[in-house]
């Protein structure tokens, strides 16, 4: 009897829809999503679009458009509570901007405009302490743009990094606001792509947010520490698009990407930072290694679900899941309960939510992942 019940539950889980699609009331392309918790979720996208939910995504409010932002592309959103959030637009020069709301998106304040006429902002992340944030931009004069704030975004300080002579067309992709990783502890990372080839770049530990009083402002390294990812090609449209850490302080990081012009190409789509005890020398004990079974195409976002003990990655042609820390990826295929295009057009993740093209917002059904594990 127990076996029959287990098989029934497994079959039921397998048939569950992978994503429950929600009504966003917009056709904007959504690339920013931030689930604060407690039912508070924010999303952002093209045409100055910002959305907010206070009930776990069942109802989405269309926010007031920030002043002068009607044509801006909000690629990133960092939310702190139901009233407070910062959105980042991506574009050349002054089309890259930061706006902040403190009244539930009824009004917005322009915090910061890109001072570099040839600059382009790609990602913004805040640590557990909402006062400390990092802003990442494409290279200007062969120097990656890194700016820090220690007061919630009111003032940003450019970091003095050395010019990187071997960039050669290397840039950062602003696909899902996840090319930058600001872990709870340890180094800060970002990943790149383009004709220069993909790299994972470490900036050192920087500002400490460990709760020490008084807090110390530690200078970031002036030289970049980088690891070139193993790929079979280096094209302007190819590289690493997103980073994620498994759990607080774990040090296990997975990178995903690919070629956004070839969304069905599985080559160069996932790498895992592993510790190899059998390595011949200490230098090779750490490093990013390509997946043995890669995702089923270009992927723009990745996250770890601690409850499911699974990694989830999404892209324009679908969703993949890994139960072995990124070594092997399996497609999360639509079921009979899914919409015909339920696995199409995804851009960014903040579980259980996913956002994508034409205003698409989905909520992950855990049973679909549980069912895949059992197959």
TrEMBL record:
Q: Which InterPro entries match?
A: WD40/YVTN_repeat-like_dom_sf (IPR015943)
Signal peptide residues on this chain, from the entry's feature table: 1-17
Q: Which SUPFAM superfamilies match?
A: Oligoxyloglucan reducing end-specific cellobiohydrolase
Q: Which UniProt keywords apply?
A: Signal
Q: Which domain of life is it from?
A: Bacteria
- Its name, as the record gives it, is Photosynthesis system II assembly factor Ycf48/Hcf136-like domain-containing protein
